[in-house]
Structure formats: structure tokens, C-alpha cells
Specification:
The complex is a heterodimer. By secondary structure, chain A is an all-alpha fold. Chain A contains four helices and no strands. The chains are: A mainly alpha, B alpha/beta. Chains A and B meet through α2 of A and α14 and α15 of B.
Amino acid sequence: MGNVSQTVTQILGDILGAPGDTLTLSASTASFKYQEMASAAIACEKAFRIEMEDERIPDLRTVGDWVNYVRERIADRDDGRPAPTDEERESWYYR
Amino acid sequence: MEQTIHPERQAEREHLSMILGLLDARLLAARAASEKQMAGLTDTRRDEFTERQEPLLRNLWAAHRFEDLVHLSQEFQNAAEEEKDHESTLREIAALEKMSFSPYFARIDLRFEEDEPEERVYIGRRSLWDDRKEELLVHDWRAPMASVFYRFGVGPAFYQAPMGKITCDLLLKRQYEIQGRELIGFFDADTVIQDSFLRRLLAQNASAQMKSIVETIQKDQDVAIRDEEHDLLMVQGAAGSGKTSIAMHRAAYLMYEGLKNPLKAHNILILSPNTVFEKYISSVLPELGESNVSTSTLEQLLEEALGAPVQSRAERWETLCDPEKQPDRAALAFKTSGAFMTLLDRYAEVLPELLPYEDLSYGGQALVSRQELRRRAKDLGSGFPLAVRLRHLETNLWERVHALRPARFDELRMMAFRLGHGEEYARGCAIWESGVLARRMRRITRLNVPRLYSDLLHDQGLLSRLGQGLDIPAGLSFAPLPGGAVPLEDAAAMAYLRMKLTFGAAQGDIRQVVVDEAQDYSPMDYAVLNLLFPKARFTVVGDIHQSLDRNADLSLYEEAARILNRKSSALLELTKSFRCTKEILDFSLQFLPHVKIDSLNRSGDAPKILTNELLIGEIAACRAKGYQSIALITKTRRDAEGWKEKLAGEISLPILGRNPELGDVFLVPLSLSKGLEFDAVLLLDCDAAHYAAPEDRRLLYVACTRALHHLAVFSEGAVSPLIEKEALHG
């Protein structure tokens, strides 16, 4: 599966107007307005096929918080097993 | 040592050189093994990064052949195992090196059956096995058989072996002094003479790093060290009675026992009053043959429990001594008392009544009423701590919200479209709305312990309601808590309250807790320890006469026993002091005349009272006598800094603080000197301005009893009125 940290950082970087590769996990997202939180949440939900709970989103104050929460939701969705990407599935199943 | 040549001197020398020869051979073999492992290790490490493997590593997920992956994982495994072997060889080398310095310190001759020859048992810090002869040449001091050495005089004896009680005749008890591979002397000793051996040892300048270690364990100390019967063992020991060494030996002994039982080294925690002591312990314990004992301080435990910085004991001591920052002693005494603990218990019980309940709604619909919240907080699975119940309640409420959410989101989306906005706008509203609800809910469900604690202290009505029937001093009021580090007494009370309200802080894997300087722990501190280590057995050692900040007496142990509430407990009193000379002890006892201490009658120089200008000369005199640790003790750290500056032109003096590895002369604030011993003590500022109040008597007692051989007190002008006893005036 795609790298969660990279993808989330990319999404947040687009909103913050900073290139994803310049953002560290401790970079702050506290400046997000509600609508920006919404954009970020929707993008993450689409990218990872998860659902983020509205009440948790205002608590996410750094890039690291977002990454951790996305990971938590992925784990909840998959009952602890990360879903393989299509490429991974191919490489293991059809070799 | 012995004036006449002992008939067995030659035989003992030969025995020592035989043992040393064997150790040297072992050491040689171990070093060779280490070098070989080292060579193998570098090969493996190099291999890991060869070009052959690098692509394999990079393409781990693309490595299609199963064998490739298996091969790779084996390579890693080999490297890890070789590394482990190598580490254990290095440990072996270190142990052998230490052992060849002084391979054993005692011998006992035992006869098990009338007509059998006696068995010679050499005792050392570690055991030494001879592969060729298949016999144990040196027995570990913690082995059951070695206990005979500590427990019995010449005559009938016994010990507890795994197969049961074994009786024997103790024919000879011999103690050696071996230093740097040289037999300096030996001494046949019955228990009575053991102390004189000790006296001789001390007369020869014991180093500050607790020289007494294994060689000088007395019979009653040994009982304390090996006690396995009691879940709570308390030792009240006079200054210089070796109680600190008991704490360390007991930890080592318990770790040794742990080799047989599932008890592991990391299940033992030593609580030491300051970091000086902690470093000191960690440098002494490996000498006893074990490592990995975990040491901590109460402050560190409280910081972990609270997740906030806590004032250190040394800092508290500085505030207590600072005339400008005089804390309210009545408030301080109450906050550390058993009565306050009961009050906090009651507070935790009534807290469900007191939370800031309010009606909660979501999307314009009532979610839950304040009455329902109150009712549910009170009933919900009342076996659980309040914080857990409230979290459960919160989860329940969010489940209700989640059920309402799709319909609510439809409404928000409709609204957004009507206003000409898209989905993101609607979602933003939803997030905002949920965020507001979350904040309101958490005001009720998340317990803010520091705030609850502060609320209690400043609510006179609540205090008097909860304090009914408790011993609360009249007119008690509390200053607001300062910002920054939490004062130690508040930290303990807050940690106690937090543990009463939540789960999670208890460390059930700690099976043994050794508390040193027990007199510094308040009832509240013991209550915290009890909640933190519910499954641990406790060893508590201290001296009530050495409490710096309050008037402790023997009831301290009763109270500790009541609070720790273990199945069986015992209190052992050690009154024999072998640290100081008779003169130093007599001088020190003038401050606390009621204290009963038996000295060993070791004679030395009379303590001196000198003026400040003689200080530099006195230091030089101490150095000339060959003293290895000369401590200049001050009342506070601030005083120590003043002296450091004042003497900077003449002598550079480090202050004993977080770094105990110092030269031979150093400054030590009084609160940090506890538990330590020095060849010479020069007590500074011994005037009426520093020591005049009745409670200062304890301070002088503590400072003076740190000295092994030499004591001088200094003052500018008139000496403290607490000093009445004759001493040599300079």
C-alpha cells in the first residue's frame, strides 16, 4: 500500500501551501480553518478509503497527529491488517 | 596486619596464586575468544553491506524467490547471535578482571559428618568453577552455604539449601584482605572479632565508595539482607550502621534469588533520595556481581505519574532554608499527612456529585440532560475508577451522535448548497459543530486532576465537609499552586488523587521495591508507592534521626506499615555504628542526646572548632594525611556556591551535585550528603545565623556523622549555640 505518511504529508502540504517534502511530522496544522480541515479530511478519506470522525479532527494539531489518526482509522477499517495495494497483491499472489 | 607470621601464611599465598593462575588462564582464553568473535563480527557486518546483498536488500519486496528471503533472514540472525555471544564474552572478561583483583574475601571450614574431613569454602563476589578438578574453588557470597559465614560464630551452624536444612560444624572463619592480586593479610575471626576487623579496615582509610561492601556484613545485617519471610521489611539504622549497604546488598541478594525464581533484575526498583545516590548505587551494585537494577527517585516516579515536572528534594530543601521563601509549614505538614490522604479518598468518592454537568445537544436536538449525566456518572459500573466510567459514558454519547450524524450531515449539505457552497463547507460546519460538542463533553468527562486538586484546596466549605472527624489544624489555608515545577508535597497528593480516579499508573511488574532514606518519605509518599507497586514486596531502610525537614520518630515505621499494608512485616533496629570514630560520634550525639548508638570504640582525632582563615590550612593537613575524600559541607546549595566563589583564588572546589566523580576535595550541600560518607568532613558556616533553631540539631547531627576519621567545624565569629561540647579550638 502507499506510504501513509508521504500521502498525508502531501495532502496537508497542498493545503498549507508548502511542498510535502519540506514538512516534518512535527510541522503544525494548527492554523487550519474549519474548511481546510474539511478539505484535508475529505482528501485523506478518499486516498485511504477510511472515515474520519468529525469530533477528532479539531484535535489534530500537527502533521504527525494526522498521520497517526489516519493510520488508526486504517487499522480500524481493516481489523488490524493493512490492505495490500493492487501491485503488492500481484507480486505476492501471481508470481 | 598480623604482627607475628601466621603458620598458614605460606599456604594461603600459594592458594591465592593457584586461583590467580586459573583466573589468568580463563582471562586469556576469554580474550582470545573475544578477538575471534570480533573478527567474525566484522565479517558479518561487512557482508551485510556487500554489493552482492545491497540490491537484495533494496528489492526486499521484489525478491521473488523464497530462498532469497530465507537466506537474507538467516544472515541477519547470524549477525545478531554473534553479537550476543560477543557481548556475553565481554561481560565474562570484565567479571574475570574484577575477580582477579580480589578473588575471594573469606573462608569457612565446615565439617558435615563426624568422621569426614572438613571442607574448605572460599567466599567471593562471584563463584569460580574449576573444570578440570570439577570443583567449586570460590563460592558466590549469596550461595546458601556462604550464609554460615555471616550468621554463625565457630561452633554448630546450619543453612537452608534447596534440599532442606543442612547442619554442620563451623571450624574456622577467616577473612582476607587481598588487593591488586596481593594477599595483604588475613584474620581468623569469630563474630565478636569481626567488628575489630572492621575497625582495622576503617582505620586504613576506607574509600568514600563504600568499601565495607561484602566484607563487613554483620550478623544482624545479614538477617535483613536475606529475609524472604516478610513482605515488608523495615530497617531503622543509626548513622553509620551500614543500612545503606543493606539496601544495596538486599537488592543484589534478591536479584541473585531471582536467578532461581522467575524474579528478574528489572523487577527490582531502588528508590534513592537524589541522583548522587543513584549514581553511587549503580557504580557499587555491579561490583556485587549484577547489573540492570532499576533505580529511581520519588520525584521521577511522580513526574511519570503526573506527566509534569516536579520539584526535586534538593530544590525543596533550598526553599525550606531560604528565609525569603519560607513555606507555610502547617500546610506542608498537612499535605503530607495520613489525614489528607483520607480526605482525598473522600474527595474521590464524592467527585461524581461535583462535576460541572450541563445539558448537551447535537444539531439542535437534545442529546442528554444534566440529570441523566449525573445519574450515569454515579452508577455506571461502579467497580471501575471514575475516570474509566466517564470515558465509557463519553463513548456512549458519541455512539448516539454517530447515529444522528448522517441525517445531520444531509441538513448541513442542503444548507451549504443553498448558500452556494460545496461539500467542504458543509463538512467544515460538521467538524466545527462536533468540536464544540467534544469540548463541552470533555469538561465533564475528562478529569483534570491538577485543577480538581486546586479546587479542593481552595474550597473551604468542601474541605471542612470532607474533613469531618479528621485531625485538621484550625485556620489552615493554602496558597495558590505556583507555576512551573509542582511542589513535591502537592505532586505526591496529586499523584495519589490521580491514581484513585484512574487506572494505568500501577506498575504490577515491579516485585521488589527498596526504599532508602525512609525517613524522608511522608505518609502520602508511602500511599503513592502503595498504589504504584501493588504487587511488590518492600524493603524500607532509614534513620528517623536523619530527617532533615521534620521531626520523625519510630511511629514513621508504624504508619508506613499501616499504609503499605503488606501481609507480614517486621522492623529491625541497628544501633551499632561503625562509620565514625568514638570522638566524632560523641561530638555528634551532643545534638541528639536521646539517640542510642553503640560505637565500636575506634579512637581518632578529637573534632576541632576553627575559624575560617584556617580552612585552607586544614584542607592541606587532611590531604597530607592521605584522606581520599574531604567534604566541605554547607547548609544549602547557595552557601556552597558562595564558598566556591570566595575560595576561587586559592583552591578550585567542585560542588557535589549531579556528578559524583570528583577530586579529593569538594563542597557538598547538606541535603545531598545524606547516605554518603567521607574520610574528612569540614563543616562550614557553623554559626548562629545558620544553626540555632532546635530543628537544626538534626542537621548538625547528619553533617557530623558523615565523617569517618576527621571532623572540623568552621565559623566566622561566635560558633553556633547548639555546640556545647568541648572540642579543640584552633
